[in-house]
């Protein structure tokens, strides 16, 4: 299976206002970058199998908007602007969920390649601690695994 | 858990002192004095934090006015953990689809004449 060599998703919170997602893909970074660069690609994966409307103008200053349609008939819309694009290694864009308007985060995607595999690191920088916490702080990574027996450890990871 | 309740929980958790208080209460119930001991702040300041935690449903306090031990209410935190897990699962699913799509892209770029 091609997925066998892909890594697990790791989630860390290196500072008050940041969340970092890291994932290894079994593909050269040129391809991983390309998969982020146009609607014809984004539509194939960003919606996780749900239909996705996509508009994007992939250049610095250009905007994008995705609308995901879930099987229950709910629509989820996301939008933002590209601030920096360095193919195939870096994309900086703003991100806003239209369901929480005004809470804009800045996402920096960094792609590094090693032995044909790409590590994609996405750092989301929030405007405030509250925005980040509203988004996920709260031991997103730890919380998923920790049972209440390990609650003290779980809380310690959030500081 | 309703979205508004969850917001209250997140707001309560946004403060390191309150998280430290919760971590202490995870070990067992405690009085305000006991909870305040590790912090360089007044009892009043600690009481304020406890009120925030209580309002968020994260802790409950005894009835007795003199002796009001605080204890953790795990259900509220479970809501946070479930929410966090949903977020994580969302990205995992998204990246699994990206894996499949990258595999497809790789195959098509290996085709002769591409």
Concise overview:
With 159 residues, chain A is of the alpha+beta class.
Secondary-structure element sequence of chain B? HHHHEEH
Strand percentage of chain A: 35-45%
Low-confidence stretches of chain B: none
**Briefly, what CATH class of chain B?**
Mainly Alpha
Structural class of chain A: alpha+beta
Instruction: Decide which structural class fits the backbone of chain B.
Output: mainly alpha
Radius of gyration of chain B over all CA atoms, rounded: 23 Å
Report strand % of chain B.
Answer: 5-15%
Strand count, sense and barrel status of the largest sheet of chain A are: 8 strands, antiparallel
State mean pLDDT of chain B (0 to 100 scale).
83
Return the CATH topology of chain A. Alpha-D-Glucose-1,6-Bisphosphate, Chain A, domain 4
Compute the CA-based radius of gyration of chain A.
Answer: 17 Å
- Kindly give the count of domains of chain B: 1
CATH class of chain A: Alpha Beta
Shape of chain A: globular
How many helices of chain A? The count is 5
**Average pLDDT taken over every residue of chain A:** 79
What order do the strands of the largest sheet of chain A run in, or round the barrel if closed? 1-2-8-7-6-5-4-3
Quaternary structure annotation:
heterodimer
How far apart the termini of chain B lie comes to 52 Å
Describe the structure.
With about 160 residues, chain A is an alpha+beta fold. Chain A has one domain (about 1-155): START domain (Alpha-D-Glucose-1,6-Bisphosphate, Chain A, domain 4), CATH 3.30.530. Chain A is about 20% helix and about 40% strand. Chain A is built from five helices and eight strands; from the N terminus they run E-E-H-H-E-E-E-E-E-E-H-H-H. Chain A is globular. Chain B is mainly alpha-helical. Chain B has one domain (about 5-110): Winged helix-like DNA-binding domain superfamily/Winged helix DNA-binding domain (Arc Repressor Mutant, subunit A, Orthogonal Bundle). Helices cover about 65% and strands about 5% of the residues of chain B. Chain B contains five helices and two strands, in the order ααααββα. Chain B has helices spanning about 5-15, 15-25, 30-35, 45-55, 75-110, and strands at about 60, 70. Chain B has a two-stranded antiparallel ribbon. In chain B, strand 1 and strand 2 (about 70) form a beta hairpin. The longest helix of chain B is centred in the C-terminal third of the chain and has 37 residues, at about 75-110. The mean pLDDT of chain B is about 85.
């Amino acid at each position: 299976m091609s997925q066998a060599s892909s890594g697990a998703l790791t989630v860390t919170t290196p500072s008050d206002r940041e969340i970092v997602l890291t994932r290894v893909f079994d593909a050269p970074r040129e391809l991983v970058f390309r998969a982020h660069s146009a609607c014809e690609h984004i539509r194939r994966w960003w919606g996780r199998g749900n239909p996705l409307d996509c508009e994007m103008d992939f250049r610095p200053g250009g905007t994008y908007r995705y609308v995901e349609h879930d099987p229950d008939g709910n629509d989820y819309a996301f939008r933002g602007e590209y601030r920096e694009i360095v193919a195939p290694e870096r994309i900086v864009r703003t991100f806003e969920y239209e369901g929480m308007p005004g809470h804009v985060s800045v996402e920096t995607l960094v792609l590094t390649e090693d032995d044909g595999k790409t590590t994609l690191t996405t750092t989301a920088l929030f405007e405030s601690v509250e925005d980040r916490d509203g988004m996920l702080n709260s031991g997103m990574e730890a919380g998923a695994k920790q049972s209440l027996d390990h609650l003290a450890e779980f809380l310690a990871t959030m500081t | 858990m309703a979205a508004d309740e969850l917001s209250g929980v997140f707001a309560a958790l946004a403060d390191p002192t309150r998280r430290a208080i919760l971590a202490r209460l995870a070990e067992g119930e405690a009085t305000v004095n006991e909870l305040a001991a590790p912090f360089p702040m007044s009892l009043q300041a600690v009481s304020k934090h406890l009120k925030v935690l209580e309002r968020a449903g994260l802790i409950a306090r005894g009835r007795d006015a003199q002796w009001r031990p605080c204890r953790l209410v795990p259900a509220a935190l479970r809501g946070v953990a479930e929410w966090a897990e949903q977020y994580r699962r969302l990205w995992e699913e998204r990246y699994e689809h990206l894996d499949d799509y990258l595999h497809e892209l790789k195959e098509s770029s290996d085709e002769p004449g591409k």
